[in-house]
Every structure is written in structure tokens, then in C-alpha cells.
Amino acid sequence: MSEGALSEAAMRASLVDISLPAEAAGGPWADAAAALGLAGLMAVGVAALLRLMAERRRAARVPTMQERLAEIALLPASERRVALLHLLRDTAPERYAALAPSLYRPDGGPELHQLTAEVARLA
Fold first, then answer.
1. What does pTM read for this prediction?
2. Cα–Cα distance between 35 and 27 in angstroms, integer?
3. 92: Cβ contacts below 8 Å, ≥ 6 apart
4. Which of 88, 73, 86 lies closest to 119 in space, CA to CA?
5. In this predicted model, what pLDDT tens digit does every residue of 18-40 receive, in sequence order?
6. Residue 63 — pLDDT band, cuts 50, 70, 90?
7. Hey, is 62 helix, strand or coil?
8. Using CA atoms, how far apart are residues 25 and 27, in angstroms rounded to an integer?
9. CB within 8 A of 48, min separation 6: which ones?
10. In whole angstroms, how far apart are CA 53 and each of 27, 37, 40, 43?
């Protein structure tokens, strides 16, 4: 500090705000890097929010076996066979594995009524 008293003009001059340079250090490259960083941060936030919303919706309700069988019964015969095989694969993978080798032969796989009875036993 100075030992003498400051004049009013000197005191007012010392109270003026700091003036920042018009351009940031690094120029336009620094501005672009900052914008890119903020955009990336916002993208991660939006992705996390969407994932959270999707998780809640997916865990809402799982249909029971009886409901799934009722939906499958409404399908045409060719689609019903495929749907029953998918259901068998999901609920009894060991039984599906036993049937899998015969599914791709022209006359292979169980008949529709046999497949329906086998899946109904799992319910």
C-alpha cells in the first residue's frame, strides 16, 4: 500500500472493472473444443435419461404363460408353430435343444397339436 492518501481520481480509476480480452486464449480452436465438450456432455446426459425411461417401461408387466398361449392360439397355424417353438425355447431350452436338429428337415419337428400340448404342460 502507499503511504499517502489517494486522490479521488486515482480511487475511481482503481474501482473500474477488469476488462477481458475480446478473444479467449487459444482463439477459435478453444471455442470449438469447449462447444464440442459441452455437446458431448449433453449427449451423454440425454442418452442416460432415455435409457432410464426405457428401463422403467420394459419392466412394467410380463405376460403370464396362459396369456401368451391365448395370444398364440389366435395366430394362423404356420405362425402358431413358430411362436410355440419360440415359447418352448424360452421356457424349456433343454427340450427345444432336443427338437432343434429335426426342425429344419422337410417333415421334421413335432406336429402342431403335439407342440401345443407340450407347451401347455409347462404352464
1. 0.48
2. 13
3. 122
4. 88
5. 776 777 678 888 889 999 999 99
6. confident
7. coil
8. 6
9. none
10. 40, 25, 20, 15
